[in-house]
Structure formats: C-alpha cells, structure tokens
Amino acid sequence: MRETDPYEHLAHLVAQAQTGDRNAFEEAYRLTAQAQFFSIAAKTNAEVAPDLLQEVYLTVWKNIAKIRPRSFVGYLNTVTHNVCLRHYERTSRPREIPHRRTTWKRPSATRSTKLGQSTPPIPPLSRTPATSRHC
Fold first, then answer.
1. What is the pTM of this model?
2. Yes or no: domain 6-92 corresponds to CATH 1.10.1740.10
C-alpha cells in the first residue's frame, strides 16, 4: 500500500470542503490545528491562543472558496500570522493618549547674553561659507 503525501491529502480535503463538506473541513482542522495552536502560543501566549485559533479557522472557513487547495498550508500560516499581528496591535496600543499642553517660554535676556559671552568669537577665516562642487 502506497502512503499518500500529507499535503496532497490536505489539498483533497480542502477541495471537498469547498463543495460544502463540513466533515472534510473538520478533518483538515484536526490535522493542522495543533501546529497552528503552538505557532500562535509562541507568538502571543497560551492564554489567548484558543481564541486566536478559533479566529484563524473562522477566517479560513469564510474564505474556503478562494483558497487554492494545494496552497492551504501556506494560506493557513499567513492567516495565523495576520491574526497574531492584529492581536498584538489591539493589545499593545494605548487606548487613550493624554493631551498635554506645553507652553514655550522665551529665554530670559540675561540667559541669552550669558550664552553669548561664554562662547568664543569665530575667527574671520572660519566665517566664509563652505562651497561644494557637484560634477
């Protein structure tokens, strides 16, 4: 008896799922969910992984008609990656940025004169502007 390629088997299951066969989709889920779970848990954490895994497979099920059966694993990995990115964006952004009003104050005259007195004068030759030639 000849062993079948697991990717070919998945492609066959996806093709069946595209005709509305839920059992085929459930079998594809059973074959791939554990790897996706660990991928999600590694990118986020194990606490949110079940919810994100559900989101991944809901997205896949909604788009099952658009998936090329032989590209199922790549599509699944891409959806998993994007779901993790969206989760990261939702949880890492601050909800509200407080508006802080800053006022700019002019330096006092005594401070600016002290600064001018403390810097040495620029020699006359150093005052000429530098020019550059472009070929």
1. 0.65
2. yes
